[in-house]
Amino acid sequence: KIASKGWPELFADPQAGIRAFEGTGFRPAPYAANGTGFASTGIPVTLSNTEAKQPNRMTFSAAGTQDTLDSVTVALDLTDAPNATVAKDRFVKTMGEVLGKIGVPGAAELKQPVLDEKPAAGSVDGADYAVAIAPMTDAGADARRITVTFRRPGAPKTDDQASNQATIQPRNG
Questions:
Q1: C-alpha dihedral over 78, 96, 104, 154, to 10 degrees?
Q2: Treating both helix axes as pointing N-terminal to C-terminal, what angle do 107-116 and 84-102 enclose, rounded to 10 degrees?
Q3: CA-to-CA distance for 155 and 64, rounded, in angstroms?
Q4: pLDDT (tens digit, 0 to 9) for every residue of the chain, 173 residues total?
Q5: Count of CB atoms within 10 A of residue 15's CB?
Q6: Quick check: 26 and 125 in contact, CB under 8 A?
Q7: Could you tell me which of 140, 117, 144, 119 has the C-alpha nearest to residue 131?
Q8: 58, 74 in Cβ contact below 8 A?
Q9: Most distant CA pair in the chain: distance in Å?
Q10: CB 138 within 8 A of CB 156
Q11: Cβ neighbourhood burial of 127 (10 Å; 0-12, 13-18, 19+)
């Protein structure tokens, strides 16, 4: 376990928090000033049929201040309907492995809402979480984004990713 004290440890040290997600497949960029605060964004990870016109992808982002990480968000873009079930299964499995490796709770709470594509919200030890589902109108009629956000309790909701999925802009490399 990387974060022996769980979410509070990740939120308290943004640089260490982002480093915890390195080597997990999310490939986050360094945590740096972005004009409205500090952020890190990962490179999209394809979760199913790489030959699809628009494959289902997972993206990572984190945001906060110089001194505190306020939120960690992982989104699943379902743009390839025939492979959506496989992508959701892989997303849930990946999240379970990543959160387990890091040593933070939340995998069990997000599993069923992601698989069923149902919004959910609650708290785990040291973090509030939200699962949101929104259409992706720019990616086809059936395209949608499932967003999982873990937020530091008391963190300002300046860019509420649970309600505004358009805020996640993955980097290209």
A1: 20
A2: 170
A3: 8
A4: 677 889 999 999 999 999 989 888 889 999 999 988 999 999 999 998 878 889 999 999 999 999 999 999 999 999 999 999 999 999 999 999 999 999 999 999 999 999 999 999 999 999 999 999 999 988 778 899 999 999 999 998 755 443 333 344 444 54
A5: 13
A6: no
A7: 119
A8: yes
A9: 43
A10: no
A11: buried
Position 42: which residue type? G
